[in-house]
Amino acid sequence: MIFFRRAIPVAVLSVLTISIIAVPPATADARKRSEAEAGALARRMLAQLKVAKALSIRGYSHRRFMPRWAHHKGKCNSREMVLARDGRRVRKNADCHPVKGLWYSPYDGKWLKSEKQVDVDHVVPLSYAWRSGASKWSQARRRAFANDLTRPELLVVSHSANVAKGGKGPQSWRPPRRAYWCRYATSWITVKHHYRLFVTKKEKVALLNMLRTCRGR
After folding, report:
1. 3-class secondary structure, 212
2. What does pTM read for this prediction?
């Protein structure tokens, strides 16, 4: 009987050990896989983009893309839609304008409590898109680009980060928060690939360097 009393706890411990080993991968591991997969896809898309010298900025103006934000649902324009999408506990007035909420800026890791502290950034800046081939587009296509809620082109960021970025490409500016480099590069490439905008040699090198931060690669 003494033998069985000692053996039973050992058997139970073995079952528990097996159960622990059989636990599915943690969310962090799944996130690493998805980030690595996104990075691999971005590399393939980047390889398909034409490499050329940047075009002249001549003729560019903000109005060539968006005299104003386009309306999507009722009174809500693109900017208001993005603020509601990317924010937490966002409250809007009768005109759809956010009057309260909490926003996270992935570029610099700041939490912002006022709509006045945030900007809706064009990941691929309008002026940069102009020099990448958008200068040859129709007004309608440029307007669709500037108000695109489907591709990762519009993003809530801090005003200070948006001002620092300006119209620069990844070879001249990168998010201060290195942890966002993978997401930033994949978003940039996704937008350029969809709209068939070309990249410069330095831009491509910078994007490839940022993609190296994608976990699991």
Report:
1. coil
2. 0.84
Residue at 198: amino acid letter = F
Helices (H), 87-212: 126-131, 139-146, 159-165, 181-195, 201-211
Query: Is the distance from CB of 207 to CB of 170 less than 8 angstroms?
Result: yes
Residue type, 152: P
**Residue 138, Cβ neighbours under 10 Å: how many?**
8
- Environment class of residue 167 by beta-carbon count within 10 Å: exposed (0-12), middle (13-18) or buried (19+)? middle
Exposure on the CB side of residue 185, measured as CA atoms within 13 A: 31
* Phi, psi torsion values for 143, nearest 5 degrees: -65, -40
Q: Which two tokens stand for residue 192?
A: 């350029």
User: pLDDT-derived band of residue 208, with 50, 70 and 90 as boundaries?
Assistant: very high
Structure token digits, residue 216: 């699991």
Q: What is the pLDDT of residues 32-79, one digit of tens each?
A: 568 889 999 999 999 999 999 999 999 999 999 999 999 987 789 999
In whole angstroms, give the CA distance from residue 152 to residue 148.
8
HSE, CB side, 13 Å, CA atoms: give it for residue 23: 10
Do residues 101 and 89 make contact, with C-beta atoms less than 8 angstroms apart? yes
What is the longest distance spanned by two Cα atoms in the chain? 93
Burial class (CB in 10 A: 0-12, 13-18, 19+), 32: middle
Helix (H, G, I), strand (E, B) or coil at 32: helix
Mean of pLDDT values over 147-158: 98
